[in-house]
Amino acid sequence: MTLTPPPRVILEPLVRTALIEDLGLAGDLTTNAIVPADAETTARFVTRKAGIVAGLDLAALTFQLVDPALAFSVAVPDGARVAAGETIATVSGRAASILVAERVALNFLGHLSGIATATAHFVAAVEGHKAQIVCTRKTTPGLRAVEKYAVRAGGGHNHRFGLDDAVLIKDNHIAIAGGVGEALRRAKQNVGHLVKIEIEVDSLAQLRAALAEKPDAVLLDNMSPAQLAEAVEIVGGRALTEASGGVSLDNVARIAASGVDLISIGWLTHSAPVLDIGLDFPA
C-alpha cells in the first residue's frame, strides 16, 4: 500500500492553529529572554521507545512556518519501524526558532506515531487471516485526516472519513425507520448509484433481514467470535463483513479467525498512547 500524506492545504491550517495556540499574544517568553537571536544549532528527533513513525510532514511544516530558514532533514520515512534511541530527523538553524516550534512538532509526531504503532500491533496480531484492521470516525476533532493517515502508516486501512463518504445505517437509524429492511430500502431510494451502503446488525435475525435487501456491507456489532463465524457463513460472500465492538489485542486474532473481512477499532484514534519522541540538542 502506497503511503501518501494529506496535502499541504489540509496540514497547514492544523499547524497554524497549534502554533497560534502555543505562542499566544506574546510569543515564547522563555526563549526570547534566554537564547541569543544569532545562536545556531542542530537538534535531533530521537525515539525513546520502539515504534512506527508518522507525522514527519507536520513536524517539518511546523519548523518551516516558524522560520523558513530552518533546515529539516528526514532520516527515516513515515511508516518505518524504528528502535528506541534512533534518530528519525534533524533540524538545523536558529536555536530560538527551533525551540519555539519544538513542542508543537513533538505533539504531532508523538500522537501520530502512537496511532501508527498501535495499529501495527493489531495488524501483526491478525497476520495470516484475511481481515483488515480499519479505523472509525472516533477521532480528535480537527485531526481526522492526519489520524487516519497515521492508521495507514501503521499498516491499517481507513473506514469512511465522514458522514458524506458512505451510508452507514446504525441502530438509531433502524429504530427511527422502523426496521432493518425499511432502513435499507429508504437508503437505496435516496442515494446515488456510486454510494456504498452498510448496515449495523446486532443479531443473526437482523442479519438475515438485512441480507434480503442486498447491502454492500454488514457491521456485526459486539458479537462473539463464534457468532461472527456463524454470521460469515450466513453472509456467504454476498456482502463485506465487518466486526466491531470490544476489540482488543487479547481477542483480535480470534475475531479475525472467524473469517470477517474487516475489524474496526475506534481505540486506535481516540485512545492510542503517544510514542515517546524527544528533541535532543547538543550539550
Automatic annotation (TrEMBL):
Domain Quinolinate phosphoribosyl transferase N-terminal: 28-113
EC numbers, comma separated: 2.4.2.19
Pathways per UniProt: Cofactor biosynthesis; NAD(+) biosynthesis; nicotinate D-ribonucleotide from quinolinate: step 1/1
InterPro entries: Aldolase_TIM, NadC, NadC/ModD, Nicotinate_pribotase-like_C, Quinolinate_PRibosylTase_N_sf, Quinolinate_PRibosylTrfase_C, Quinolinate_PRibosylTrfase_N
GO BP terms, alphabetized: NAD+ biosynthetic process; quinolinate catabolic process
Entry keyword set: Glycosyltransferase, Pyridine nucleotide biosynthesis, Transferase
GO MF term (any one): nicotinate-nucleotide diphosphorylase (carboxylating) activity
GO cellular component terms given for this protein: cytoplasm
Any Pfam family hit: QRPTase_C
Subunit organization: Hexamer formed by 3 homodimers.
Protein's name according to its UniProt entry: Probable nicotinate-nucleotide pyrophosphorylase [carboxylating]
